[in-house]
Specification:
Layout lengths: L1 H14 L2 H8 L5 E6 L2 E7 L5 E3 L8 E4 L4 H7 L1 H7 L1 E4 L1 H13 L4 H9 L1 H36 L6 H29 L1
Length: 189
């Protein structure tokens, strides 16, 4: 069910992108396997340039191994997701898939406008973006507040400056101890 929903969403994006379907048509019948932990999803490419669920037992032309945090990265940092994905198999298919997924974008406002109208869709998306920015800022403020509390108010975490000062004092003590040992050795001799 989840696989069908994901395939439906990707194919929905491909409907409006003739260039992407044309690029995928050259690889009709080939299979790409997406791996995320124990989840393995074979995707077959149709003659019309869409994706369908592939045969789980068939050998894949390309394997894309996604990092464990792929769902989060897909929403927050797509370039990091692309960089962390391990690709093996046919280079030409991998390059085409990479190009299509890099350049395939969802026009959320257009889809939302079909349900709510143009003005409401624009305002809902802008409100959503502002909400996400607000949440990110609040998370950053919380992290900074906790860091300040644990370093200043209830020092259970040492500040960088304090650690550097401590290391410098230890180094000075070691030098003084070495000098004292030299003096003791000279006095004994």
């Amino acid at each position: 069910m989840l696989v069908d929903a994901a395939l439906g969403w990707v194919n929905r994006l491909l409907v409006g992108e003739d260039w992407a379907r044309e690029r995928l048509k050259a690889f009709a019948g080939q299979t790409a396997r997406l791996e995320l932990g124990a989840l393995s999803l074979p995707l077959a490419i149709t003659a019309s340039g869409y994706f369908v669920a592939g045969d789980r037992n068939a050998a894949a032309s390309v394997t894309l191994k996604l990092p464990a945090d792929a769902p989060l990265l897909a929403l927050t940092d797509r370039p990091a997701l692309r960089a962390a994905t391990q690709i093996s198999g046919a280079a030409d298919l991998a390059e085409s898939l990479g190009f299509v997924f890099r350049n395939l974008h969802w026009d959320a406002e257009s889809d939302l406008a079909l349900l709510t109208g143009d003005i409401a869709a624009r305002r809902l998306l802008e409100g959503g973006k502002q909400l996400v920015k607000w949440q990110q800022q609040q998370a950053k403020n919380l992290a900074l507040g906790l860091a300040e509390y644990f370093t200043e108010e209830s020092p259970s975490i040492a500040r960088h400056q304090d650690v550097s000062t401590f290391c410098l004092e230890i180094s000075n003590l070691q030098e003084d101890l070495a000098e004292l040992e030299k003096r003791v050795t000279r006095l004994e001799g």
